[in-house]
Design brief:
heterotrimer, A mainly alpha, B mainly alpha, C alpha/beta, A: mainly alpha, two-stranded antiparallel ribbon, globular, B: mainly alpha, 11 helices, 2 strands, 2% strand
């Protein structure tokens, strides 16, 4: 894909999401908002999986924790303040990730996958088994966060359009920030770790610290997504932390192609579209989803985004042999 | 806790731990020998339990159900290895995770299509339906003791298979060096097929014999899968002995966690895991 | 002995029942190319791994500029000034030559935590990387992707990466392996040049290169130091002859 075509594609997508609330129905606007939130979620995981080479299978924990923070900070008959609750939710998600990262980053490979899953499951049980957040029934967020600053309210998140654009701004900020981070010194260290960790150690990098930092940042950004998700749907359940959620976000990252964040966005929207499409068709939509996943791994190594390159390369390869 | 309740909980812990061992041992062998992370392993436990339910409903007898169910499970394992897992050995962990995650969705929905989403019970076989009286008010069901005994026999059988037989030798060799085994002229693909089918059968068998005590419900495989992961992490990948010890530890942590701190029972197991990670990140029995 | 940059005293490493290194002592001096030779399985790679911190010794200690560094992890030793290369090329394949070396140079930044400033715009780091690339003679290749380069060029790149970390002690594990005669000669020439203000330990099988370039040679057999001294001394040693009996490379000289 040429650079100019890439830019064109990005601008086209941006124009589409900007115009959408004015042309699409309320239902589809909410669906696109959901896609944008999941895009944030998937991008945060891409920082671990695609950039740093850490396959975390427990990323939903940080998403869910932040959503619960919003729910718990929202009083029963009143809205929580956006400018207070959002930073707190993100901070808590990041701190939980820091704590979990402290343990899980002592392991590698298959162990890492299993241990991240296990710790996420532990977080799941905390909310599922205790009364902290309404137990297995979940908890309502009765009011959308209020954006008031000292009596002045710049926008009202009760308005679906305002909420939509707030989510869009968050998604763009996360995309821009992560792109920038990848190009930074820190980002190049993470990529070095992905590619060859022992070499990074031999060159004097204390890789554990960098991985831990990446893990905490990814957790905090997943928290942004979880917070917005809770705000959008007004409801938080332990299922937000479930391993299906962790599996789904991993699926989004891989479907779209890893390591450049744009792929994660594409994967998130592809996932939402697939979910809607299959669910409209049958109650057993997970069967079709599962079959698509199995088929994609067997027949499409490298993800959807690798498809054009594969199609292009194939004839040449066979000509060589 | 008085002595009799303590005894009962101890027996429960051992029985639960041994059951988990059946699932985890297959998982750890498949990890250790083929290098495949199989998220769908818990599904085999679920499939086993539902097979027991369906076959008991047809035949009216758990033994007949086992007799039919075990070969079916082995066949399923062999089929899956041949059709899917064989293609995963050289792929990276990420693709293995994804494909086996997809398989979970497929298995759960197929189960839902075939047998519905209801919770079912399976009757304890009549000859084991008695209870042993331990005090005036407390007694212990014989069937649970039978489960423990069967699991112990299987663990011994597994030990003999791995350490005393030719195929066990091949398994252990494959565990260490695939190229070497192939250079010796051993058909590694057949070993993989056997190991995988064995793992599936053990997990499904655990589900079948657990059905009368745990009831049969959707999602039962996931719970067992994650506990099995914890067991493999604690015991060390590829170590069947480690899996046995870790499974008993988890059985005790879970059972006594539920008795002593009911509100936080789900957490006990993970705290044990966190402690082991601090102490030996590669598992207790990984040299 | 006082001018030794790196000194190992009585290093021992056991793997289960096997003793890979037993009571190994050697010292690396500034301005000296020190070769470590011996038959396969003699424990040379273990020795390098002990010095670089990739393995922890079962006994013995390591002094760097007089300071005991036995307890330091590999990345801490690298920061102290000990650099190494690996037996198999160990570079970042998808990156360009420049990016590889830049990453090595960046490791000397006290704060590599910059998350906003673009990495490629760090002038001081870039200059250090360019200098290291020029020193090994890869300047013309700086933009190439490493995965597409020849084996010999990758080994040169590894040297550049070690240089970019400003290491004063360089540990090279078979840098000539798999190289053609001409490439080997160039590499030996490079190593000689680098020795001026550094100490180099070279594990190598190519005896012609070793005798041509090294000032000191240590011969290891079965995990122990058999003989250590100037090339003439090693050539004259009866013990070394015996250990290498049947191995043409030494005997035919």
């Amino acid at each position: 894909m040429s650079a100019s075509f890439n830019t064109f594609l990005k601008l086209l997508v941006l124009a589409l999401v900007l115009a959408f609330p004015f042309v699409g129905s309320a239902f589809y606007t909410e669906l696109v908002a959901k896609g944008l939130i999941l895009a944030i979620f998937a991008m945060s995981l891409d920082l671990l999986v695609g950039v740093t080479g850490l396959v975390s299978f427990g990323h939903a924990a940080y998403f869910g924790v932040a959503a619960y923070v919003l729910a718990l900070l929202t009083p029963k008959y009143q809205a929580a303040n956006l400018w207070l609750s959002l930073p707190v939710a993100v901070l808590v998600a990041g701190l939980v990730a820091l704590l979990v990262g402290f343990f899980v980053l002592r392991t590698r490979g298959i162990y890492f996958i299993m241990v991240t899953l296990a710790f996420a499951q532990m977080a799941y049980y905390i909310f599922h088994d205790t009364d902290l957040g309404g137990g297995s029934d979940g908890i309502y967020v009765n009011f959308k966060p209020s954006a008031a600053i000292a009596g002045w309210t710049p926008f009202d998140l009760d308005q679906p359009k305002a909420l939509y654009f707030f989510i869009l701004v968050c998604a763009l900020a996360v995309y821009g920030g992560l792109r920038r981070l990848k190009e930074s010194s820190f980002g190049s260290i993470l990529q070095g770790i992905r590619d060859n960790e022992s070499r990074m150690l031999a060159m004097g990098y204390a890789t554990y610290r960098y991985k831990l930092a990446a893990f905490a940042v990814a957790g905090a950004l997943a928290g942004v997504a979880g917070y917005l998700y809770g705000a959008l749907y007004g409801f938080v359940t332990p299922e937000y932390l479930s391993w299906h959620q962790s599996g789904n976000v991993l699926l989004m990252v891989i479907l779209g192609g890893m390591g450049n964040f744009g792929g994660a966005v594409a994967g998130a929207f592809a996932f939402v579209a697939m979910q809607e499409f299959f669910a409209a068709w049958t109650k057993h939509w997970q069967l079709l989803m599962g079959a698509v996943i199995v088929g994609a791994v067997l027949f499409l190594p490298g993800g959807i985004s690798a498809l054009p390159a594969r199609l292009k390369r194939k004839p040449r390869e066979s000509a060589d042999e | 806790m008085d002595f009799v309740s303590f005894l009962i909980q101890t027996l429960n812990a051992v029985q639960y731990g041994l059951l988990l061992f059946l699932v985890a041992s297959g998982l750890t062998l498949i990890f250790g020998i083929m290098g495949v992370i199989n998220l769908a392993h818990g599904s085999f436990y679920m499939i086993g339990a539902y097979l027991a339910f369906a076959l008991v409903a047809q035949t009216g007898n758990l033994f007949t159900a086992l007799l039919l169910g075990i070969p079916l499970a082995a066949l399923l394992g062999a089929l899956l290895e041949w059709a899917l897992f064989r293609h995963l050995y050289k792929r990276n962990h990420l693709e293995q995770v994804l494909l086996t995650y997809g398989l979970i969705l497929v298995f759960e929905e197929l189960r839902s299509l075939a047998l519905g989403d209801d919770v079912h019970g399976v009757a304890v076989p009549a000859i084991f339906s008695a209870s042993i009286k331990l005090s005036d008010t407390l007694s212990y069901p014989v069937y649970r003791l039978v489960i423990s005994a069967v699991c112990v026999l299987l663990a011994i059988g597994l030990y003999i298979l791995i350490h005393r037989t030719r195929i066990g030798m091949m398994i252990r060799a494959g565990n260490h060096d695939r190229d070497m085994v192939e250079a010796l002229g051993i058909d590694i693909n057949r070993i993989y097929l056997v190991v995988f089918a064995l793992g599936v059968t053990l997990a499904a068998f655990a589900g079948m014999i657990a059905a009368p005590v745990s009831s049969v419900f959707p999602g039962m495989g996931n719970q067992v899968l994650i506990l099995s992961f914890v067991i493999v992490v604690i015991g060390g990948i590829g170590s069947v002995w480690g899996a046995l010890v870790a499974a008993l530890v988890i059985g005790f942590a879970d059972t006594f966690g539920k008795v002593l701190v009911p509100d936080y029972a789900g957490l006990a197991v993970y705290l044990v895991m966190a402690a082991v990670l601090l102490w030996r990140p590669e598992g207790i029995f990984k040299s | 002995m006082s001018d030794a940059l790196l000194r190992a005293e009585g290093l021992t490493r056991r793997f289960g029942g096997l003793t890979a290194n037993q009571d190994v002592s050697l010292s690396l001096k500034r301005g000296e190319l020190h070769a470590l030779v011996g038959p396969n399985g003699a424990g040379k790679s273990t020795c390098i791994n002990l010095l670089s911190g990739d393995l922890a010794p079962s006994a013995g200690r390591i002094l760097f500029e007089g300071r005991d560094i036995t307890g330091l992890a590999s990345h801490q030793r690298s920061l102290a000034g000990i650099g190494r290369s690996y037996q198999r090329s160990n570079v970042f394949m998808p990156f360009s030559v420049f990016e590889n070396v830049r990453l090595a140079a960046q490791s000397r930044r006290p704060r590599a935590w910059r998350v906003w400033a673009k990495a490629l715009e760090d002038r001081a780091i870039n200059e250090r990387a360019e200098a290291a690339i020029a020193e090994v003679g890869l300047a013309a290749q700086r933009a190439r992707i490493v995965g597409e380069m020849s084996h010999g060029e990758r080994r040169q790149l590894e040297v550049a990466m070690v240089l970019a970390t400003d290491a004063r002690v360089l540990l090279f594990d078979e840098p000539l392996a798999g190289m053609g005669a001409e490439e080997s000669m160039k590499m030996v020439e490079l190593l000689r040049r680098l020795t001026t203000d550094r100490a180099i330990l070279l594990v190598e099988h190519d005896m012609d290169a070793v005798f041509a370039a090294a000032q000191t040679i240590t011969v290891m057999v079965n995990g122990q130091v058999l003989e250590s001294g100037a090339p003439q001394q090693i050539r004259a040693s009866a013990a070394v002859r015996e250990a290498y009996l049947g191995d043409d490379e030494v005997v035919h000289e």
